[in-house]
Amino acid sequence: MKCFKAVILVQLFLVSVLLAGEGGLTDEVTKQIQSSFKMDAETKAMYNALTNNDIKELALNRKLLWQHNEKFSKEIDKVGSVTNQKRSGRCWIFASVNTLRPFVIKKNDMKDFEFSQNYLAFWDKMEKANTFLERIIEFRGRGLMDRELMIFLNMPIPDGGYWENARDLIKKYGVVPKDVMPETQSSSNSGLMNKTISHKLRADAARLRKMHEKGKKVKYLRKAKEKMLAETYRMLVLNLGEPVSEFQWRFADPNDKLSELKSYTPKSFYDEFVGLDLDEYVNIFNDTLHEYGGHYTIKLSRNVYDGHDITFANVEIDTIKRIAMASIDANVPVLFAADVGYDQDGKFGIMADDLFDYESIYKVDLTMSKADRAQYRNSIRGHGMVFIGVDVVDGRPTKWKVENSWGDERGSKGYWTLYDEWFDMHIYNIIAKKEFVPAEVLKIYEKPVVELPVWDPMLDMYR
């Protein structure tokens, strides 16, 4: 009997070993793969081309490039000079204020104008630091492997954000002209600053959790948080400069005549020079992962702790196009977010479907639906830009003019032509004024809101 049991145990062990090895890249599988590869004349030519040239240059669709033009039936005027976010992830700030800029230039008869993105970025960092530490206090009883807590620990103070974040900042802190709080090395190249402040905030998080473990009350933790935020403020001032609370400013008209020098606060400046009601703008998505006609919000997506999470109405892509066209026709620019990791070229300033033909080079099928690209994390709405023109033929848009924030040395002197097929696949949302939004879409915001988790594909947490 003992021998029989021993045999059974040996057999079970052998079966478990065999099962554990299933799925591995065995010598047999490797040999089969290698034998299937043939270095024929065509493959050899492609091998030589790829190993000696830029892949994008080889994949560039020359036929599409030859057919390309930059003619638009409607363009917004007085958009101002091209802006440059440089090596930072502040596209959402640039796009948000660039959406307001044509109105400011026209309303005040200015020669040119640019908001201080650095001013808003400063307060965004402070708000993110407060939100991070407040979440640490809020989640103090959770384990460190908690999914929501891990997302905050992963990126305590990133550059990125969205329209709702910009709206909260502007309403709370106002705005200032760029020459009142100009760019610095760290605002334009934010990586090391972010890393250093993130290190400090994670250290603060560890201290707050240890205080909790020792039985300290929330009131005590929040008092400690205030000291931590004061230290963060000092670090930000040393990197970005100290934000103004009052300033004197004047501007030049198209004839270079200077206006009267006057004093402003950031809020009074907004009221006088902008004055738009930011609550009149709504967020409209084409989210192929969720039901159209739904009203959604993304949990924990706010930068300002007492601000607003991303909230949107979900509609079909053609509805978004009609809204954007109506806005541009009324000379009102449209902020939008897209995935610029596909089929866009900074040399020519083109965003077009099949601009690069990698399938022909590698002889593979790269087809994915828009939903699959988002669901499998192959696509993110990682960049914010502004529509300032559209070319309409027979009532349908064929291409769109885009104001980017990558400087005038990229694209077509800072602008991109976005073809309509690219719009379908890579654009996820627009921010539009309610006056251009159909009544049936506005009614979506009256529906009960469905909360999506912070790890939903529509929130780019690695921004």
Topology:
Layout: H1 2-21, H2 27-36, H3 41-52, H4 55-59, H5 62-67, E1 74-75, H6 91-107, H7 117-138, H8 147-154, H9 163-173, H10 185-188, H11 191-213, H12 218-240, E2 247-249, E3 262-264, H13 266-273, E4 281-285, E5 295-298, E6 311-314, H14 317-329, E7 334-338, E8 344-345, E9 350-351, H15 358-362, H16 370-375, E10 383-393, E11 396-403, E12 415-419, H17 420-426, E13 427-433, H18 439-442, E14 450-452
Parallel strand pairs: 4-6, 5-14, 9-12
Antiparallel strand pairs: 1-10, 2-3, 4-13, 5-6, 7-10, 7-13, 8-9, 10-11, 11-12
Helix pairs in contact: 7-11, 7-12, 11-12
Would you mind describing this structure in some detail?
By secondary structure, the protein is α+β, with helices and mostly antiparallel strands. The chain has a single domain (74-358, 367-452), classed as Alpha-Beta Complex (Cathepsin B, Chain A). 44% of the residues lie in helices and 14% in strands. The protein has helices spanning 2-21, 27-36, 41-52, 55-59, 62-67, 91-107, 117-138, 147-154, 163-173, 185-188, 191-213, 218-240, 266-273, 317-329, 358-362, 370-375, 420-426, 439-442, and strands spanning 74-75, 247-249, 262-264, 281-285, 295-298, 311-314, 334-338, 344-345, 350-351, 383-393, 396-403, 415-419, 427-433, 450-452. The strands form two sheets. Strands 1, 4, 5, 6, 7, 8, 9, 10, 11, 12, 13 and 14 form a twelve-stranded mixed beta sheet that branches. The chain has a two-stranded antiparallel ribbon with strand order 2-3. Helix 7 (117-138) packs parallel to helix 11 (191-213), helix 7 packs antiparallel against helix 12 (218-240) and helix 11 (191-213) packs antiparallel against helix 12 (218-240). The longest helix is centred in the middle third of the chain and has 23 residues, at 191-213. The termini are far apart. Residues 2-10 and 12-20 have low confidence and may be disordered.
